[in-house]
Amino acid sequence: MSGSSPRRWFPWLTAALVLLGVGALALLPTEDTERRCVFPPLAGGEEAIIFGGDTFLGLSADRLMAREGRQAQLQHLAPLFAGARAVVVNQEGAITARGPMRGPNGKKRGYGAHPKTAAALAAAGVTHASLANNHALDRGIGGLRDSARHLREAGVIPFGWGEDLDEALAPVVIEAGGVRVALVGMLHPWPKYWKAGWAVTEDRPGLLMLRRPRIVEAVARARDAADLVVLFGHTGREYQPLHSSQRTEADWAVEAGVDVFIGHHSHVAQGWSHHRGMPTVWGLGNLAFGSSGRFGGDGYGLVARMVLADGVLQRIELLVIETDPARTGYQSRPARLGDARRVLGDLVTQGPSELVLRGDVAVLAATPPTGSD
């Protein structure tokens, strides 16, 4: 029998198979790069309120919704909301059939979402929507009223606005884990909106502005109805890290007796901390937004889960979501685990805070650790 001896080629064959195996393993998805983040299970007796940031179903996402339905922008996030006692978002822009109009944001930037998007929010699990933002009056006071009406008809409770100051200050209360939680929605008083008369007054409809006297009034009203007051504030600078003005507003909140501060408006995630002892999420970024934005291919937001049990706040969990339409096609989704760890590591310096992980999420404790501010 002619040919090489098996003993001579067997080591080469073995080495080739090993190399092929290593190559195949390299192609397999790894946990850190492919698995997407999830909230850890709640313990017995725990209940949750979830907070999402800037939300607008429409604009450049209209084609997506025409193809896949009005719920398409939220379909990958809806599973995160399952089982929550409430889901709170910032509804950016008017929900109305009214056309664009000139105003502080200009005619071209007038945000108007289709009336049916209110039902899409509700179908995804959203229960409460703040209207205190810099696009809520893009279609005038009529558009603002339309927003509130469409939301209510869909079963979503609007807040942060009113036909007069008394209505705007009326507490919106959620009960979870034996805690009555009051929501206060407020908008930073940027000069062009202030001059345009967007602020609600005793005799004029509008939005609740994030000013020191108004925070004091809102907290005083909320204390009669709630155990815990959450200020859900539209503040900061777009596509920018934490700004000093946000710290000033958080100071006002602490002095007025706010228990938790959760911010939005910047369209990108910001850090978290115990600001003078107050659990503070500086900026959630986008939840689902129909604008292409200015992310540079690296846009991420946060979904905050407030966990309550035994009559007290236990913790706030922060889950990273991928929001840049260049990568998601206007369908925000939980981030891959490896990306989430990187994002959380970058954000923790903005707080500043320490990075405490529980499963896939960062944890902001109900009370600051010993020695922190």
Please give the radius of gyration in angstroms: 23 Å
Distance between termini?
84 Å
Shape by Cα distribution? globular
Q: What is the percentage of strand-forming residues?
A: 25-35%
Q: How is the biggest beta sheet arranged?
A: 10 strands, mixed
Instruction: Give the helix proportion (percent range).
Output: 25-40%
Q: Assign the structural class, choosing from mainly alpha, mainly beta, alpha/beta, alpha+beta, or little secondary structure.
A: alpha/beta
Counting DSSP E segments of at least 2 residues, the number of strands comes to 20
Low-confidence spans: 9-31
Structure annotation, total helices: 12
Overall mean confidence score, pLDDT: 91
Describe the structure.
It is a single chain. By secondary structure, the protein is an alpha/beta fold. The chain has helices at residues 6-27, 31-34, 62-68, 78-81, 117-124, 140-154, 165-169, 191-195, 212-223, 244-256, 325-328, 337-347; strands spanning 47-56, 86-91, 94-95, 112-113, 128-130, 157-159, 161-162, 172-176, 179-187, 206-207, 228-234, 260-264, 272-275, 278-281, 286-289, 300-309, 312-322, 333-334, 357-358, 361-365. The strands form four sheets. Strands 1, 2, 5, 6, 15, 16, 17, 18, 19 and 20 form a ten-stranded mixed beta sheet that branches. Strands 8-9-11-12-14-13 form a six-stranded mixed beta sheet. The longest helix has 22 residues, at 6-27. The N and C termini lie far apart (84 Å).
